[in-house]
Design goal:
The structure is a single chain. The protein is an alpha/beta fold. The protein is 41% helix and 14% strand. The strands form 3 sheets. It has a 6-stranded parallel sheet. Strands 3-4-5 form a 3-stranded parallel sheet. It has a two-stranded antiparallel ribbon with strand order 1-2. Strand 4, helix 2 and strand 5 form a beta-alpha-beta unit. The chain is globular.
Length: 305
């Protein structure tokens, strides 16, 4: 069976896509869900601010973008759809929920079974707020360890992933916490190769980057354009030298419309990878086949099901 990437514009095959940015944001609200005005914005206003940023990326060859805003930090699949339709760019949107304290009351009160059923429904039928399917599951864990509530969400995600084939991506800062998450996923009968260690670069002990990859998980360096190239480039080279070309994802973790800011704030472009980092990798001797693997094949393989 041919794998497809579920997007705002429907299911797409690898042949229909090229470069994919695997970790970006179109819309984010980092206030907690109990705050007044949380996740509220006029979709037309978001299109106004974000469509020009999308078009800049498209002009550089980007054919799809993974939206990493999940429940608890302002996910608005309907707004992602509006931006996608305005720009004709497929956007890949998750189900799931973030870590404490960004957990709404309904998630806090739900059973593991109810959370699993919700994720499966969004993955197989439609989002609560928009009529298209989630592609993947986005979660998180505390920097110092997984809380009991975060573990409930993770176990529900592992069960939903097992039922649907969806990958789980987690905002997790410490490599040892990622290893704990992988243990839980294994215990639930799902697979480490269907897990993305988001923000892997924040674990500065490279041996833990390797340990996560050795378990079979994807590692993601998503600070391109956020941190100095002099820091980012050697880390990518180190991962490639370690043989991780088929498990490495590269992105910016940039954007985005913030409803807590006047007019949505000032977005940061999705262009540094194409305009700066890829030329630097080529200059450093990385060949075109490797570039294509990192920017085309790996993101599709990670998120398709």
């Amino acid at each position: 069976m041919t794998k497809v990437l579920w997007t705002t514009l429907g299911p797409m095959t690898a042949d229909e896509l090229g470069m994919i940015l695997p970790h970006e944001h179109v819309f984010v609200d980092l206030r907690t869900p109990d705050q007044p005005g949380y996740a509220q914005a006029d979709p037309d206003d978001v299109v106004r601010l974000m469509a020009p940023e999308i078009r800049k990326a498209q002009a550089l060859g980007v054919t799809a973008l993974v939206e990493c805003t999940t429940g608890g930090v302002g996910r608005r699949a309907d707004i992602d759809l509006a931006v996608s339709q305005a720009t004709d760019l497929p956007i890949v949107v998750p189900t799931g929920n973030y870590r404490e304290p960004w957990i709404p009351d309904w998630v806090r009160d739900a059973s593991e079974a109810a959370l699993e059923a919700w994720m499966v429904r969004e993955l197989e039928e439609r989002f609560d707020e928009a009529d298209f399917r989630a592609a993947w599951i986005k979660i998180s864990a505390g920097d110092d360890g997984i809380t009991p509530l975060e573990e409930i969400i993770l176990r529900a995600a592992a069960r939903a992933g097992q039922r649907t084939g969806a990958i789980i991506g987690s905002h997790t800062i410490r490599g040892r916490v990622v290893m704990d998450q992988l243990d839980i996923i294994d215990a639930e009968g799902y697979r480490a190769d269907r897990f993305i260690s988001i923000h892997t670069q924040n674990e500065t002990d490279f041996s833990l980057n390797l340990a996560v990859a050795e378990r079979g998980a994807w590692i993601e360096y998503d600070h391109i354009g956020r941190e100095p190239d002099a820091v980012v480039l050697p880390l990518i080279e180190k991962a490639l030298a370690a043989g991780l070309v088929n498990q490495l994802l590269l992105s910016h973790d940039l954007g985005w419309y913030d409803p807590a800011q006047p007019g949505g704030g000032v977005p940061r472009p999705y262009t540094h990878l194409c305009e700066v980092m890829l030329p630097k990798l080529r200059t450093a001797g990385v060949d075109e086949a490797t570039i294509r693997q990192l920017t085309h094949a790996n993101p599709f393989a990670a998120y398709a099901r």
